[in-house]
């Protein structure tokens, strides 16, 4: 078992090798290494986007929401009770969704206003993760308080303690517009999720939302938080079958599902690129090994006359060609793993140094490039790189094994 490997190492280090052959051999190793490193980095970035979608963005967006078809819900507590009996539901809380306008210099700005129950909201939302604990406590104690996203507060040039006037359009029967409702609220906290929601959302108390919406009931919707966000459509249907109230059903896959589909599409393309890039990089191994076989014809003839079997010759050149792929794959995967782990910090420093943003927060659901290195991706990339390298050696090795001593010594 060791003889083919020893011969492969001897051929690899042979002084008879030309500079051109050495260059081709090194380029194949470097090509496979670069391919592995780049693919691990790209897959880690895609993993980071998916993780940010699950843990950050969807903590602020309802996984499932039941919205009253008209006016408010007659008994939101019953919906909460039914929903929390489902094993897939983590928690449920009431809310009122409003569209509001706030006046900026020279124009009006539209925002999404959510009226929430401060006792139940932390169980279904990540709002408390993105603002100081003192700000949340101030919001609880101030019934006229409002929480603004950082981007929204910056655009309106508002700080904690300032007051803001909100204009809420009102619809009557037949969708006729009536006089808008006005709310004057005090900014008690500013949350910063680091994405487009910072420029769109604001939170007020449930009682204030009831007054602003002019509804007779306490809530107009119930929001569910799920253990598995990808089970949202199924859970929404199952819970709805037990709810007796007439309501519209929304889940995040309908409103924000395009983000997840985009991530999965790019990930699938990355896997296809993985195979294609490594296949192209492996062609250098084929060309290198073919030239090595030609160069080592006399050595092959000597080995055959000494009794070496075709199987030993095949194994020798498979080992020699595979060394390029194994070395490139291992070093490339190591470099790619380290680079992927350091990528967010490196890009953050680069953005700060050059005063620019790769992902403007007002346009994207996340404002920085994330990275999440998964062992399965590293193993997959390394395994495919080694496998393609081994496959690339089979044809040249088979050609070497076909050489007879007479053909090899004649140089045919």
TrEMBL record:
The keyword Glycoprotein does not apply. It is found in: Cell membrane. PANTHER family: LIPOPROTEIN-RELEASING SYSTEM TRANSMEMBRANE PROTEIN LOLE. The chain crosses the membrane at residues 20-46, 269-292, 312-343, 378-398. Its main location: membrane. One of its GO terms (cellular component) is plasma membrane protein complex. Residues 272-405 form the ABC3 transporter permease C-terminal domain. Pfam families: FtsX, MacB_PCD. InterPro entries: ABC3_permease_C (IPR003838), Lipoprotein-release_system (IPR051447), LolCE_TM (IPR011925), MacB_PCD (IPR025857). Keywords: Cell membrane, Lipoprotein, Membrane, Transmembrane, Transmembrane helix, Transport. It is a multi-pass membrane protein. It comes from the Bacteria. The keyword NADP does not apply. Residues 27-239 form the MacB-like periplasmic core domain. Belongs to the ABC-4 integral membrane protein family. LolC/E subfamily. This is Lipoprotein-releasing system transmembrane subunit, LolC/LolE family. GO terms for biological process: lipoprotein localization to outer membrane; lipoprotein transport.
